[in-house]
Model the fold of this input.
Amino acid sequence: MKPELNNLSSLGDDQLVVLAQGGYDPAFAELIRRHQSSCLKLAMSILRDRSDAEDEVQNAFWKAFEHLGQFQRDARFSTWLTRIVVNQCLMRLRQTRRAKFLYLDDAMIGDEVGTLELPAPEQTPEQELGKQEVANLLRKEIRRIPPLLRNVFLLRDVQQLPMPDVAKQLGISVAAAKSRLLRARLELRSRLAKHQGRLGPATLTA
Done:
């Protein structure tokens, strides 16, 4: 028996995903309502244009709906949805070739970040496969970070929430959140180091 619409807000993301994968569309609508604000903030931070950001967030939501059956629930729904939003925004930047962008998979490991020139829109199958393998490796290592550190990393470096919002969601002080974030970045950098080739992060291998 499906829950009443006014009870959906009391369910966790995992429960809503199960219902949505079973064909209960109101559950998916609740997931989107729940994460729309953070997704829009993330898209705005990449595209720097509200109209473009809103368009790509909607495109991401539609893509998530189309591919929800492929979500294996081995990661949080919010992380999976965030990745779709990021990919949509990066594709928008590639298509418009509007200057530079930041690869989130390579970013924010340390306190300093850099930008990469836009690649050519056409990539060989080998390049696409390599990029996917690196992304899979990064997700795997992020999941291995202790939850106490992983949560602050996902909120700040993946969802791009301001530190005060991160601290509020975790129920800790801003100073404590910054401390955990630094430890999380160091932990991830240490985990990725064992996969690096001679050229560093560009040559991550499983």
Remarks:
- The longest helix spans residues 25-47.
- Residues 1 and 19 are 10 Å apart (CA to CA).
